[in-house]
């Protein structure tokens, strides 16, 4: 059985052939009918798109390391979104 968090979201690692690393995208788009019934690894061949939310502490990991891993696994293009923080002044 696949684990589902308190928001009803399922967390998968991407299974990339010939790659030791199992990246965990912030969001993976997959056709519902293709989702595995159990396990924590999602074969990269089933993924339509992955999204990484980039913060100050993850710039290199998300833009360089993970993109390289996804490209090696022929995962469809990665979209990255930079998280911006704003401070409200009163």
UniProtKB/TrEMBL annotation:
GO terms assigned for molecular function: endonuclease activity
Boundaries of every Putative restriction endonuclease domain copy: 17-72
Entry keyword annotation includes Hydrolase: yes
Classification via Gene3D superfamilies: tt1808, chain A
InterPro entries, sorted: Nuclease_put_TT1808, Uma2
Protein name stated in the entry: Uma2 family endonuclease
Species in which this protein is naturally found: Streptomyces griseochromogenes
Key words of the record: Endonuclease, Hydrolase, Nuclease
Domain of life: Bacteria
